Input
Amino acid sequence: MEIIKSDTNFNFVRLMKPAVIASLAVIIIGIASLILHGGPNYGIDFAGGSLIQIKFPQEAAADKIRSALKPMGFEGSIIQKFGPNEVIIRTAESGADPKGLTARIEEAFTSVFGKGAYEVRRIEVVGPKVGRDLTKKALLAIIFSWIGILIYVGVRFEFRYALGGIVALVHDVLITVTFLSLFDKEFDLNIVAALLTIIGYSINDTIVIFDRIRENTRKNIKMALGDVINMSVNQTLSRTILTSLTVLLVLVVLFFFGGAVIHDFTFALLVGTVAGIYSTVFIASPIVLLFERIKPSGPKRK
Output
């Protein structure tokens, strides 16, 4: 199936500078947002503390929930809606074991709501030491994925291709983190999984275009690299659009109908997938061209 005709000739290289400027502007906004928010909105996995999920037969007022938490010393907890008639309570306390915390919660909520008027569905307790350890391992997982891809692309292609691919991947992660910060989404292990998924998806698209660029470079040795990149991106445009649309369609359905549990995860994947499509066309390939202008690969290349 061919959506875009094979003889189409959009000048993607010409849009390199505006694309880089737009990406830098979004990333700067993200940095400013992180500073204003005091850093990412870490979830219990990284920040430590306790998470309590409670379901009521009907919507419960936040003030009433706080009055139940007050005797426990949890009046400063964060209360968030989580699906119909469910709430998530987040507290910084992490000393209590889950069983002991369950007993305290049941006692406090029974005194306010009555017995059987609620259901404690989940309790998670993460200590601050474990949270710091998870934060370190999450960062290392992302960094090692970049290093592994840099080595793989450098061996399979050339260093300039590896550099373009890594810059595009870093771009995708930063753009995703920017939108997570702007919308005050929680940063937990699910988001780390989403970021690693985005990295894998984005480099897959990038490799397809790089492979076509390398093939066309060998066939058209006298052609300027910018023209080769434009030709290669245009030739793979139908494939990029088709694969991207199918992925985005699934993500949109999951975002609206997947439920609150995977809402933030799907949001991160949506943003990252769009950023990956954009960076594959407008960031990765132009970086190869920029590196070629700085250090030409051969005397015959214009």
